[in-house]
Amino acid sequence: MKISTTETAKLIARDFGMEKLGQGELSEEELLRMLESQVAYYIAHRLEFLLSSLYRLDISEKLVRTALLPSSEVPANVAIAKLILDRQKKRVFTKQFYKQPKIEDLEEGLEY
């Protein structure tokens, strides 16, 4: 099943206030670069918000701590952006895979 970059971008835009993501189709690499920039801003200016958002997205605290280590080979904003993108892609996949069919006759069954 192909995971939609557009759907992933919508989730990221909603959770991280990135309105630009809703404007047109982005490649996964473009999405990642924009997210890296936003995460860098949050690390510098709104770390508590970022950590709270990561918790709400159910991103492993252990992975976040590893990404924030000064000894990490990858810059923190890049590592965290990848964690966010991976998690949001999993969410989109789950929504698509377990999509519930629309219930047509719901109103009929609720009449008294």
Q: What do you see in this structure?
A:
66% of the residues lie in helices and 0% in strands. It is mainly α and 112 residues long. The model has no long low-confidence stretch (mean pLDDT 86).
Feature tags:
single chain, 112 residues, mainly alpha, 6 helices
Task: Summarize the topology.
Blueprint: H1 5-16, H2 28-45, H3 47-56, H4 61-68, H5 76-97, H6 106-109
Helix pairs in contact: 1-2, 1-5, 2-3, 2-5, 4-5
Concise overview:
The chain is 66% helix and 0% strand. The protein is mainly alpha-helical and 112 residues long.
Q: Helical stretch count?
A: 6
List how many beta strands DSSP finds. 0
Most strands sheet = none
- Report strand %: under 5%
Global structural class: mainly alpha
Report mean pLDDT, rounded to a whole number. Answer: 86
Count of folded domains:
1
Q: Could you give the distance between the termini? A: 42 Å
Helix content: 55-70%
Shape: elongated
Q: Determine Rg (CA atoms, Å).
A: 17 Å
Q: Provide the succession of SSEs.
A: HHHHHH
Uncertain residue segments: none
